[in-house]
Predict the 3D structure of the following.
Amino acid sequence: MVSVLWQGVWYRYLTNVLDPQRLSARQVCELYRRRWRIEDACALTKRVVDVAYVWTGSTKAVPLQIYATLIVYAVLLTICQQVAQVLGEPLERISVEMVCRALYHYSRAVERGACDDLVSFLAEHAKLLGIIKRWRKPHRERQQLESIIWGDP
């Protein structure tokens, strides 16, 4: 059990990983915090790929849509992670939606013969394409609280 005091409230998380070298208390808390990312994945993919409504009489359509959503989102997250590494930014600052929308611009650049590497194209044009999210007040406050709790410099 991992217990963390956050803004005057104790949160307790259970894990079956007992070695803190493999999974630290901070990592356990981050994993629990991100547990609803599947909901984000579905909402974003439905909105951006425009598959909010699928009309079908087949019982196999729903699982297929779920699998397709997960695959698209996994690919997008992989691209976002690579762009974040190139830019030296945390993954949370990379907009998955804007990366998805930027794929159109990348395809046009490929057609013109202007580039052939997706990640370098996105990193090079990150500001123009709006890929990096601005630090807003809630982000700064959360970062300050995390540094107090975890002792970050």
